[in-house]
Design a protein that fits this description.
The complex is a heterodimer. Chain A is built from 5 helices and 9 strands, in the order ββααββββαβαββα. Chain A is α+β, with helices and mostly antiparallel strands. Chain A has a 9-stranded mixed beta sheet, with helices on both faces. By secondary structure, chain B is α+β, with helices and mostly antiparallel strands. Chain B has one domain. In chain B, strand 1 and strand 2 form a beta hairpin. Chain B is extended. The chains are: A alpha+beta, B alpha+beta. The interface between A and B is medium-sized, with 20 and 16 residues.
C-alpha cells in the first residue's frame, strides 16, 4: 500500500516558530517503533514525576494503557479503519485510528455516516500536562483536520465523532467546537462528541493547526 | 489522500436498486458510497465472526437480544 505524505506545520514551542512536518495516511512499523522506543520511556518518566509529586493516579495520562501495536494488529487489512500519523524531524508526534462504519447520534444528523476517531494520541513530550513547555503544538488539531478531510473524501460532509478521555474534553469542546452529547453509559461513561458539517467547516476555516 | 479507484459494472434487480437508492437518499451519500460502506461493514463483521465473535442485535427497551447468523 502506498502512503500519501502531506506537508503540514507544527509550532516548535521552544523557538516559537513553525516547523515542517509530515501528515502520513498510515501508521507503519517506524511509528510503532517510535512509540515503543521514544514515547513509552518518555511517558514512564512523566508518570514517575507525577507519582513523586503525589499526583493521584486519576490525574495520570489516561491513554497510558494503550498498546498501539495491538491496536494496529486488530484492524489489519480491514477497510473499515484508516490510520494516520504525524512525523516531525524524524520522530512520530501523533497517531490516530479512524473507523468509517459508525453513524451520527446528533439529532440533526442521526443515522448519517461519520468518521469516528477511535484513538488519537499525542507524543508525551507534546502534552502540556506532562512537559513544561511541550515540544510541539498543533498535533491534535492537525489530526482532527485529517479526520474531517477523510470524512469529506468519503462523502460524510465532514461529520466526525469520538469518545473523549476526560483530560481531552476541553480540547474537543472548546478548541474543536464539537458538540458534547454527554456521558455514554455504554462506553465507560466517556463523553461522546460530534462535529456537524457546519462545525467542521468552521473548524477548518478558523481553527488552529 | 484520495486513492486511485477502479470501476466495475453492477447488475441489480429493481428491488435491489430501489433499496440502494433509498439508502443513498437516507444517508445523504452516493450509491457508490453506500456500496463502499456495505463492503466495509461486511468485511468487518465477517472477520470478527471468523475470530469466533457473535453479531448481536439488542433492544434495550424490550430487553431482547438476538444473534445474527452470518453465511
Amino acid at each position: 500500500m502506498s502512503v500519501t505524505v502531506s506537508p503540514v506545520y507544527l509550532l516548535d514551542v521552544g523557538s516559537n516558530s513553525a516547523v515542517e512536518a509530515e501528515l502520513r495516511d498510515a501508521i507503519e512499523e517506524q511509528q510503532l517503533a517510535d512509540w515503543e522506543a521514544l514515547w513509552m520511556p518518555s511517558l514512564i518518566d512523566a508518570i514517575k514525576r507525577l507519582h513523586a509529586a503525589g499526583v493521584p493516579r486519576s490525574k495520570w495520562p489516561q491513554s497510558r494503557h494503550w498498546i498501539w501495536r495491538d491496536k494496529l494488529q486488530a484492524i489489519e487489512q480491514l477497510l473499515a479503519h484508516k490510520t494516520f500519523s504525524i512525523v516531525c524531524r524524524g520522530e512520530t508526534q501523533g497517531l490516530m485510528v479512524v473507523n468509517l462504519t459508525k453513524t451520527a447520534r446528533h439529532q440533526e444528523q442521526r443515522g448519517k455516516p461519520l468518521a469516528y476517531v477511535e484513538y488519537l494520541e499525542n507524543a508525551p513530550w507534546n502534552r502540556p500536562d506532562l512537559f513544561t513547555p511541550p515540544r510541539y503544538r498543533g498535533v491534535g488539531s492537525l489530526l482532527i483536520r485529517a479526520a474531517i478531510a477523510l470524512s469529506e473524501d468519503e462523502e460524510f460532509k465532514g461529520r466526525i465523532g469520538l469518545h473523549s478521555l476526560p483530560q481531552a474534553d476541553r480540547f474537543y469542546a472548546e478548541k474543536c467546537g464539537m458538540t458534547d452529547l454527554g456521558p455514554d453509559g455504554g462506553y465507560q461513561n466517556l463523553h461522546y462528541f460530534e462535529m456537524t458539517p457546519e462545525q467542521a467547516k468552521a473548524f477548518v476555516e478558523n481553527g488552529e493547526g | 489522500m484520495s486513492l486511485s479507484k477502479r470501476t466495475m459494472t453492477l447488475n441489480l434487480t429493481d428491488a435491489e436498486m430501489s433499496a440502494l437508492e433509498q439508502l443513498s437518499a437516507q444517508k445523504d451519500i452516493s450509491k457508490t458510497a453506500v456500496l463502499r460502506q456495505a463492503l466495509r461493514l461486511y468485511q468487518l463483521v465477517d472477520a470478527r465472526v471468523a475470530r469466533g465473535e457473535k453479531l448481536m442485535f439488542e433492544n434495550e427497551a424490550k430487553s431482547e437480544k438476538a444473534e445474527l447468523m452470518m453465511l
